[in-house]
Design goal:
- This protein is an alpha/beta fold.
- It folds into two domains: 22-332, ABC transporter transmembrane region fold; 378-405 and 422-611, 3-Layer(aba) Sandwich (Rossmann fold), CATH 3.40.50.
- 63% of the residues lie in helices and 10% in strands.
- The chain contains 21 helices and ten strands.
- The chain has helices spanning 2-28, 37-66, 71-120, 123-127, 131-173, 175-181, 185-222, 224-229, 233-258, 261-285, 291-332, 393-399, 423-427, 444-449, 457-466, 470-475, 493-507, 523-536, 572-578, 581-590, 607-611, and strands at residues 354-364, 367-377, 382-386, 408-413, 416-417, 430-433, 511-515, 541-545, 557-562, 565-570.
- The chain has a six-stranded mixed beta sheet, with helices on both faces. A four-stranded antiparallel beta sheet has the order 2-1-4-5, covered by helices on one side.
- Helix 3 packs antiparallel against helix 5 (131-173), helix 7 packs antiparallel against helix 10 and helix 10 runs antiparallel to helix 11.
- The protein starts with a helix and ends with a helix.
């Protein structure tokens, strides 16, 4: 029980420390621009000074010029007052522009660092987080900082300097009346502290629910075809409505809390005005105060609470910004993909020799998914990974380009541990074609050219011809300049796959990894791809994750993976003759099917299988 009490008592303190640390980091973002801050502070001070001097000039005009019957002096005072307000307006405009421009540079730097950080995070980070939530942090959470740094901060600085100037002016004119006006300050501080505590949590909730809405929206837009195909549109609408309502309720709650700031300040301002009128009139009747000074005090009281009202509004913005900044810094604080060691060297041109030496691997600590995986692939060989879904085939393939680091053992390419060479030089020698190829929202030429920066149009066209994609591309209205939507869904699955193969051809890799790259295409398209692969794979090492076991027949080595272990290895004929898991998978896949012909012109089902 005592531990629970301590945890509850410690939670607010930990949150306060976290907020303070976030605020310090946010202020630290201004460090590179500190050379421009003095000029901004000077402009803020000039604007605040002009606001403080104005009421004093009005009091002098009443007491000396109007009551003294001096029209000439009144004209001079009014001209001076006009000059003061013009200077104040220009200074305010200058400080808003200067501080706002610095704020935009800070935001641009944050966005750039966020994007750079996302590019360097390990793949495991993205496995655990919705893309929509990450987008919300980069866009929505940064936007909350935009409101604070571009507008709120200039208002806060102006308000603080104005408040100081007004307090000094009031104390200088009449200390007793000034102290009477200040009696409402303790009530104001207590009210602000109470509302601020409630607003802080409310804005944290709004940032979290906004991330949920963005994640749901991104997921449902990407999956709209599946939603319509499975008649899930109404259920998805209901699910989104729940998240949207949660976000609405959170924002309504936050607005409800922050909306109490202004009325509270209005009440306190009215109370202070009443105190000034009552006590000030008494001093006037006692000949201890002039009418002009009383008029100046009434103006000062109104000005006194205006900066406080602005500051309270900025405080509400700051709570939302701090909640967003916490989520932003949570990404920036994530450990990046481990850097190449200082002694890591460029791997250079390779022959394509691959070795797995007693490799064990786990995505999460304590949950091992690969167990003592050992095999060798000679340069130019074609190795096929087969096995049940979830057996660990894709995990094995992703360790070769070092998308993940092994937990124990070693992966070697050309007899060099992949952890001892630079990732960039290693991955330049490897290309991957996935079951679901990703196409960007650019032209077809740009999508193929993604395989190699600086590729010429002729090289792009040649790569498309190798995989027999040139024909359908030429038939499109824009040819290679046809623009694709995100994902390339205007194309068929087979056409998208052919573009992915063309991209791999252009990269000219020594090692090619095919992750069930033909499982989603029809038999005719697969035949076309198989013929193209004959050219592509010549002289290259290839690792093929095979769903259709017809693609394994010509493999030099077949590795049968089950529950993270290699349980069988050998050639197609040897494994069929063995009658183990591979033979069972093969038999199940082609049972009761006619004898289709592969693109290589060979029957899929062997005599041994038919007779078994």
């Amino acid at each position: 029980m005592s531990q629970v009490i301590q945890a509850i008592a410690g939670a607010p303190r930990e949150r306060a420390e976290r907020r303070a640390a976030t605020l310090r980091r946010l202020l630290g973002e201004w460090g590179p621009h500190r050379g421009q801050l003095p000029a901004a502070f000077v402009l803020v001070a000039v604007g605040a000074g002009a606001q403080a001097v104005g009421p004093w000039l009005i009091s002098r005009a009443i007491d000396r010029d109007i009551l003294g019957g001096d029209p000439g002096g009144l004209a001079q005072t009014m001209l001076l007052l006009l000059a003061v307000y013009v200077v104040g307006a220009l200074a305010t405009r200058g400080q808003i522009y200067r501080v706002g421009s610095i704020g935009q540079r800070v935001l641009a730097s944050l966005r750039a660092r966020l994007f750079e950080q996302l590019q360097h995070l390990p793949l495991g980070y993205f496995d655990r987080r919705p893309v929509g939530d990450l987008m919300s942090r980069v866009i929505n959470d940064v936007d909350t900082l935009n409101q604070l740094l571009s507008q709120g901060l200039t208002q806060l600085l102006g308000s603080l300097f104005s408040l100081i100037g007004i307090i000094v002016a009031m104390l200088t004119l009449n200390p007793r009346l000034a102290l009477a006006s200040f009696t409402v300050i303790p009530v104001m501080l207590l009210t602000t502290a109470y509302l601020a505590g409630r607003a802080r949590q409310a804005f944290r909730t709004t940032r979290e629910t906004t991330g949920d809405v963005t994640a749901e929206l991104q997921q449902e837009i990407v999956g709209i075809r599946e939603a319509q195909a499975f008649n899930r549109t109404e259920e998805n609408i209901a699910s989104f409505r729940v998240r949207n309502q949660a976000n609405r309720d959170a924002n309504v709650g936050a607005v409800g809390i922050t909306s109490a700031f202004a009325p509270a300040m209005d009440v306190l301002s009215t109370l202070a005005t009443a105190l000034v009128i009552g006590y000030g009139s008494f001093l006037v009747f006692s000949d201890e105060l002039t009418v002009g000074v009383l008029a100046a005090f009434l103006i000062y009281v109104q000005q006194f609470f205006r900066p406080i009202q602005l500051a309270s509004q900025v405080y509400a913005q700051a709570q939302a910004a701090l909640a967003g900044a916490e989520r932003i810094y949570a990404i920036l604080d994530e450990p990046r993909e481990p850097a190449d060691p200082p002694e890591a060297a460029e791997i250079g041109a390779i022959d394509g020799w691959i070795e797995f030496d007693a490799v064990c691997f786990e995505y999460e600590a304590g949950r091992e998914v690969l167990h003592d995986v050992t095999f060798t692939v000679e340069p130019g060989q074609k190795v096929a990974l087969v096995g049940p879904t979830g057996a660990g085939k894709t995990t094995i393939a992703t360790l070769i380009p070092r998308f993940y680091d092994v937990t124990s053992g070693a992966v070697r390419v050309d007899r060099r541990d992949v952890r001892e060479v630079t990732r960039g030089s290693l991955r330049r020698q490897i290309a991957m074609v996935l079951q679901e190829p990703f196409l960007f929202s650019g032209t077809i030429a740009e999508n193929i050219g993604y395989g190699r920066l600086g590729a010429t149009r002729e090289e792009i066209v040649d790569a498309a011809r190798v995989v027999d994609a040139d024909g359908f591309i030429a038939a499109l209205p824009g040819g290679y300049d046809t623009r694709l939507g995100e994902g390339g869904y205007a194309l068929s699955q087979g056409q998208r796959q052919l573009l992915a193969f063309a991209r791999a051809v252009l990269a000219d890799p020594r090692i090619l990894i095919l992750d069930e790259a033909t499982s989603n295409v029809d038999t005719r398209t697969e035949s076309t791809i198989q013929q193209a692969l004959g050219t592509l794979l010549a002289g290259r090492t290839s690792v093929v994750i095979a769903h259709r076991l017809s693609t394994t027949r010509r493999a030099d080595l077949i590795l049968v993976v089950d529950e993270g272990r290699i349980v069988e290895r050998g050639t197609h004929g040897a494994l069929l003759a063995r009658g183990g898991l591979y033979a069972d998978l093969y038999r199940r896949q082609f049972r009761d099917q006619p004898r289709p012909v592969t693109g290589l012109g060979e029957p899929v089902v062997s005599a041994a299988t038919r007779g078994s």
